[in-house]
């Protein structure tokens, strides 16, 4: 058995799967009934733990031991607000961080932008985990009544715009 196989076996047996790619996936939906943007961002837990430890050097984080996220959510919110911005119709909008939940090996963060009647343009800047990984890709899937579009944001192009 090679060293590489042994390391993979140990990681598999410990319940921690390695991932060779660094990606987050954001779903953004314009709800015309509630006139809001509903956003969920999925981030690998182990990557976010590293980012939060770097963001708040006072302690390290291990979400496997966290049962109640109410104590950690303010830090996650600060991190997300520092690394995620949206402009609707050329104007930056305030984001309402609603909370987060664990879904397997991913943390899902929920954000809302209220009072969005009509989308003429949408710009998204997402630098989540860019401070850790030069190959980080943040995908943004946007669903509107006019159809679905996607953005691929990376360290070279952290911001992009959709025109409707």
Detail the poorly predicted runs.
1-16
Structural class: alpha+beta
Biggest sheet descriptor: 6 strands, mixed
Helix content: 10-25%
Rg over CA atoms, rounded to whole Å, is 17 Å
What is the approximate shape?
globular
The amount of beta strand, in percent, is 35-45%
Look at the structure and give the mean pLDDT. 87
What order do the SSEs take from the amino end to the carboxyl end, as H and E?
HEEHHEEEEEEEE
Gap between N and C termini, in Å?
55 Å
Helix count equals: 3
Q: Order the strands across the largest sheet as they lie in space.
A: 5-6-2-1-8-9
Question: Would you write up a description of this structure?
Answer:
The chain is α+β, with helices and mostly antiparallel strands. It is built from three helices and ten strands. It has helices spanning 3-13, 45-55, 73-83; strands at residues 23-31, 36-44, 84-88, 91-92, 96-103, 106-114, 121-126, 137-144, 147-154, 159-163. The strands form two sheets. It has a six-stranded mixed sheet with strand order 5-6-2-1-8-9. The chain has a four-stranded antiparallel sheet with strand order 4-3-7-10. The protein starts with a helix and ends with a strand.
Layout of helices and strands, plus pairs?
Blueprint: H1 3-13, E1 23-31, E2 36-44, H2 45-55, H3 73-83, E3 84-88, E4 91-92, E5 96-103, E6 106-114, E7 121-126, E8 137-144, E9 147-154, E10 159-163
Parallel strand pairs: 1-8
Antiparallel strand pairs: 1-2, 2-6, 3-4, 3-7, 5-6, 7-10, 8-9
């Amino acid at each position: 058995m090679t060293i590489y196989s042994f390391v993979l076996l140990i990681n598999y047996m410990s319940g921690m799967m390695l991932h060779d790619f660094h990606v987050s996936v954001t779903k953004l939906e314009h709800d015309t009934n509630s006139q809001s943007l509903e956003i969920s961002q999925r981030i690998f837990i182990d990557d976010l733990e590293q980012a939060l430890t770097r963001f708040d050097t006072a302690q390290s984080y291990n979400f496997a031991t966290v049962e109640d996220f109410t104590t950690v959510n303010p830090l996650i919110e600060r991190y997300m607000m520092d690394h995620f911005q949206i402009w609707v119709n050329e104007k930056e909008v305030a984001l309402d961080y609603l909370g987060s939940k664990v879904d397997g090996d991913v943390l899902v963060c929920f954000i809302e932008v209220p009072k969005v009647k009509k989308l003429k343009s949408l710009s998204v800047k997402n630098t989540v985990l860019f401070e850790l990984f030069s190959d980080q890709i943040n995908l943004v899937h946007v669903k509107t009544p006019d159809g679905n579009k996607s953005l691929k944001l990376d360290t070279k192009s952290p911001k992009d715009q959709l025109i409707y």
